[in-house]
Amino acid sequence: MNLIESLREIVGSSGFVAEGDAEPLLTDWRGRYRGKACAIVKPSSTVQVAQVLKLCAELGIGVVPQGGNTGLVGGATPSEAGDAVVICLARMTKIRAIDTGNDTVTVEAGCTLQQIQELAASVDRLFPLSLASEGSCQVGGNISTNAGGTAVLRYGSMRALVLGIEAVLPDGRIWDGLRGLRKDNTGYDLKQLFIGAEGTLGVVTAAVLKLFPALHSRATAWVALDSADAAIELLARCRAVCGDALTSFELMSRSQLDVVYEHVPGTRDPLDGQSPWVLLIELADPSNDAPLQAMLEDVIGAALEAGLALDAALPASAAQAAALWHIRHIVSEANVRCGISVTHDISLPISQIPRCLATTEAKLIEAGLVDGARFLYVGHVGDGNIHSIVLFPHAAWARVSDADARVDAIGKVVNGTAVQYGGSISAEHGIGRAHRAELAHYKSAVEIDMMRAVKHALDPDGRMNPGKLL
Description:
Radius of gyration: 23 Å
CATH architecture of the largest domain: 2-Layer Sandwich
Number of domains: 4
Number of strands: 17
Oligomer: single chain
Number of helices: 17
Largest sheet: 7 strands, antiparallel
């Protein structure tokens, strides 16, 4: 049986990616990971996905599922061996159903996050997942990585937003779990096996997603602070005063903001640019006349009087608020323009964030691993997720003799310290290729055994996304 001819027969000429068009699908968007594939296909239906997986099972060939290819840990990039088929879901973009009575939408895996957001808005609903890459990331990838974003504080990560999924198993069987039920107490919640599994158990082809009332009132603030400890205290105050209206609570270091202002034209600091830390806070409510502005002004005013906050800017228009959010969302692109960023996606008990960051910096400096680099921080502090970044300007990186060893050494310090403070080495980016070895180190033997048992039960030959996660 000829693999290439069989794949062409399944997906058609429009679903087969020619060699000259393959490069973007074989490289992650930051250029960190590059691989090869024996073929790349773009099926247009679940049936085609099933046929491709059945063919690969018969031939003993690995499969790498791929969504928008916006990940940060190499999870969607094939290995250099070139012995797997990449299945890109970009053509599967159908909206299968929208049920405003049940507040759900059923979509195929290739729909972008922005498409789903806009669809929800068209029926006066909200799909709350929000990421910097929302214009290009796809819902299948969001599910497979358990994406988080800026609204987890209020709505939860993708695990909380998915009611049902459709997936193709490694042997080509289709599991139809597209049920829009909020209660279904009939045994194992099988969809949760695929959420966060990074394509290692099967290919997610569609999902039933929760919708929420559209948000018609918003209030935003940009708050200057002198310490991360102050952010933790202000978070407690905001929660006490604002309750469920508190939607986003984003912390950024001055060092990170400086990189944005230096490398992204049109961005500017709304305050004096001196404070070591800044918070971007947003309140939101479905009603048109919720007193959010007054509520936010009261809590920030009290923080200023108590010396907890140094200064604050409250935008007077939606355009001004959007400009603040642009600063927050553009950080990854700014870092790429500035140099080489060694990025870590740690999760911590909120109370331990300041101590963990300070300890990590001291350890890295003492180990001599960060000469010429900057420490940058940006994160969803309301849910304990901090992106800890060591950024090497290009000139400093050129002096690093063994890049891979340096990245590994920095990672061991950052992740090891996070675990020391009761945290996790990945909050929302996943494991992929980047953290596979570390996962085995930090997870207990019992946890690894249970994960391997699930993997073996569904993918006994280890063909799904080989070399990732486990």
